[in-house]
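Support request from a user on the community tier.

User writes: "When I paste my C-alpha cells into the form, the page sometimes reloads and wipes my input. The last time it worked, I copied everything first. Here is what I submitted, just in case something in the input itself triggers the reload:"
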C-alpha cells in the first residue's frame, strides 16, 4: 500500500464514495472540490494496487501558526482496522512537522463512536465541553443548532 498526496482529480473518485464510507450518513456535501485543489500538501491518499482505499484531508491553520487541522478521514469499510487510518495520520503529522506546527485539532459527532475510539488511540485528548454524552465531553450546538461536536487536540512534540 502506498500513501501519496491528494490531487484534484481524486475528487471525482472519492466524492461518490463518501456517504457509503460514512455508513449512509450525508457527508459528501461537507467535502467540496476546493479541498482537493488547495490543500494538496497536507492531504493524503492511501492506494492499494491502484485503488483508493482511504484518504485524509487536512490543512495548516491560517489564523493560528501552531495549529494544523484534520477535516476528513475515511477508510474503505473493507479495509478498516488494518492501520491505514494510522498511516494516513502519520503522513499528516510528518507534513505538518515540516511546517513547524505542533498542535493538531479535529472534530467529530458524538454519534461517531468509531471516530472517538480511533482518535483516542491516535493520541488525541478530548477537550472539555459543556455537556456529556455516553461519558464523553461534548460541545453542544458547536456547529449550529443540534450540531453537537466532540473536539480533539493532540500535541505532536
Ligand atoms: C475512523 C477510521 C478512519 C479508522 O480507520 P482504520 O484504518 O480502520 O483505523 P486503524 O486501523 O488505523 O486503527 C488505529 C487504531 O484505532 C483502533 N480503531 C479503529 N477503528 C476502531 C473501531 N471502530 N473500534 C475500536 N477501535 C478502532 C484500531 O484498533 C487501532 O488501534 P491499535 O493501534 O491499538 O491497534 C474508519 O473507521 C473510518 O473511515 N470511519 C468512517 C469515517 C469516519 O468516521 N471518519 C472520522 C471522522 S472525520
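"...and here is what came back when it finally went through:"
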Amino acid at each position: 500500500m502506498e500513501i501519496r498526496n491528494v490531487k484534484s482529480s481524486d475528487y471525482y473518485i472519492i466524492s461518490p464514495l463518501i456517504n457509503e464510507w460514512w455508513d449512509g450518513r450525508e457527508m459528501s456535501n461537507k467535502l467540496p472540490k476546493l479541498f482537493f485543489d488547495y490543500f494538496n500538501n497536507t492531504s493524503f491518499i492511501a492506494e492499494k494496487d491502484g485503488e483508493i482505499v482511504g484518504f485524509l484531508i487536512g490543512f495548516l491553520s491560517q489564523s493560528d501558526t501552531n495549529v494544523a487541522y484534520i477535516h476528513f478521514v475515511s477508510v474503505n469499510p473493507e479495509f478498516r482496522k488494518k492501520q491505514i487510518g494510522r498511516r494516513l495520520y502519520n503522513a499528516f503529522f510528518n507534513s505538518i512537522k515540516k511546517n513547524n506546527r505542533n498542535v493538531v485539532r479535529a472534530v467529530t459527532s458524538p454519534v461517531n463512536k468509531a471516530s472517538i475510539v480511533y482518535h483516542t488511540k491516535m493520541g488525541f485528548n478530548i477537550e472539555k465541553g459543556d455537556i456529556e454524552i455516553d461519558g464523553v465531553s461534548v460541545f453542544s450546538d458547536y456547529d449550529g443548532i443540534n450540531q453537537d461536536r466532540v473536539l480533539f487536540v493532540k500535541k505532536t512534540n
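Agent notes: The reload is a front-end session timeout and is unrelated to the input. The domain at 1-101 is CATH 3.40.630.30 (Aminopeptidase). Residues 21-22, 72-75, 80-86, 108, 112, 114-115, 117-118, 121 surround coenzyme A (CB under 6 Å). Escalated to web team.
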